Description:
Elements: E1 15-16, E2 19-20, E3 52-55, H1 79-85, H2 96-111, E4 117-127, E5 134-138, E6 141-145, E7 148-150, E8 155-163, H3 169-177, E9 186-190, H4 196-205, E10 210-214, E11 229-231, E12 265-267, H5 270-278, E13 303-312, E14 315-328, E15 333-343, H6 351-374, E16 381-388, H7 396-409, E17 413-417, E18 427-429, H8 438-442, E19 448-452, H9 469-475, H10 480-500, H11 511-531, H12 542-563, H13 570-586, H14 611-614, H15 620-641
Parallel strand pairs: 3-18, 7-11, 8-9, 9-10, 10-12, 15-16, 15-17, 17-19
Antiparallel strand pairs: 1-2, 3-19, 4-14, 5-6, 5-13, 8-13, 14-16
Helix pairs in contact: 1-6, 6-10, 11-12, 12-15, 13-15
Amino acid sequence: SGACRSHSFHSDLLQVRSVRYSRFPLQPTENGERHLEVKLSEDGTEEFTDVEAEGSPSFRPAPQNYSRCSIAFLLLGTLCPFCRDFENPGCSAGSDKDMSLANSIFDEFKKLEMDPWTDIHDVQLPIPDSQNPNKVQFGSEDFSLTGYLAYSATDRVQGKLVYGNYGRKEDLDIVNKNKIELKGCVLLVRAGKISFAEQVANAADRGASAVLIYPDEADYNYVADTVLYGHVHLGSGDPYTPGFPSFNHTQFPPTRSSGLPKIPAQTLTRSVAVKLLQKIGGPEPDETSGFKGGFKQVSYRLGGVENITVEVNNKLVNKEIHNVFGVIKGFDDPDRYIVLGAQRDAWGSGYARATVGTSVLVQLAKAFREMVKNDGFRPRRSLVFASWSAGEYGSVGATEWLEVRTAYLLKGNACCVDSVLTCLICLMRPMTIDDPAYPFLAFSGIPSVSFHFIKPNVYTYYGTQLDTMDQLNYETNNQTNEITAIAAQFAGQMALHLVHDHLLSLDVNRYSKTLTKAVAGVYKHIRLLSQVGVFLTDLSPSWLNRARGSFQRAASNLYNDIANTNLDDKEACRILNNRIMMVEHSLLSPYVSPVKVPFRHLLFGRGSHTLASIAETTDVDELHTQLALATWNLQGCANAMVGNIWDLDEEI
Length: 652
């Protein structure tokens, strides 16, 4: 069933040490407010069953060594009217509306005595040129297009129109097997499965001259002329200052992110896509290929017959963007930070994308401040609330802030509040490049998690004018308010653990399965190369496997140390936390430049240094080099977990 279920949680009154916090049931109280309670089980894990989260494998509650978990319940009033306070359709990054909303959030933090501050960046953002719109010409028809893809190359190109399903590598392999030439073509793909940026990068790798992206009826329940917006930067932050912050006083030579596409890309409406597919020509794909979409009036032929012209005329504008922060300072370790963030800007209405997340962020700030001021709650670590701008352009605001302050933030960790949708299933999966918290993990090496509430076919209205309060209410069976409260509770409980527990709830042992799978992929790849006759002198993944063993032994020893430590000893816990926090950062490759390869994470980054890339490399010299570097990257991570230098694992 796609319907969202309402939740009611019940538990006995729990305590944080000697401080008692009351519970708040979902049913209406005497004053008409609704409150929500979430129970934590005795082993320290939340009893949530309907959340999908994305993040590093370590970001899950680790079993606690005390019998009764420490917890507090947050008072959360009705959020729907509060959401309306931050509803601001057309709040594009750097616009007057964006600045006005930033000021409102600043004022809220100031009222809460949270010492607010603003982080300002001067960035270059692409927008359509109203005097010279983007166009597609196919046969005798000309289409003037409204939607656009930020950071597309600007150009006018012509090529054979080819249909490539979702534009994944395996999809393009099928096109090639049907003897359709991809070099120089204009590739038509349907949105979904992977990001716009990945679709364009895959097409460019095969020599395509341009990419057109449309929402297929099989994946998106849109009206015919719904316009799509997005970005195609295979990275995050301002791509014109890669690896360093965008300030107007920054003295760096002009440079560009390696993730900027060199070919034009453009979105189409369904109605335009149907007209192209009806006349594309060429062979029909095999029934088992998965290329057939939901349009009954077309056969989804592969094309390669008819010419099409694509013209993209987007222009760059200089914009000043403001990130807004408030802080509740820690009482024991104020120099350790937990960051809760939410995107503020949006293309179109952006109700689920930005309004709900912003509302949850500010309401959580109120709840935590109330706990500190009136209930005697004393967080050990500092809790930073962040409202990001330019998130729609690829986490620009968050990344620019990280580029300034990564060194400070390595002592803390981030939890990113993402959009709130309907709820049905509970999953934990690796972050994708489009995730708001991805740069925290893959660029800065900070343990991070992003979550949202979904139903199986996912909320599909991001980046359109359909992302409205009415649409979200329809998708949630008019339970947006209750679900938003659940999301706030989930984020709040997670933040409570991280700011209050002596020991951080991060279990690095959970990386073992991910590492084993990645190393097995390298073994398989090298074995296959050998079987097809590739000469692999002195090339073996055994050293990488030994480094994996070192990592697992170090993780095991770390948790043995935890088991044998008095967790009431604050200094001992601080030392253990430092060892835990080093893991994610040590998985960033020290052998690549953050300017050229911003996402340096060995497992979840992007580039030739990653284990996933090594498992596909066919150049033997490159394979040899990257295998050696990855081995020492992983061994360095294992060493970082070791408490004493004389305990370093020498088995490699």
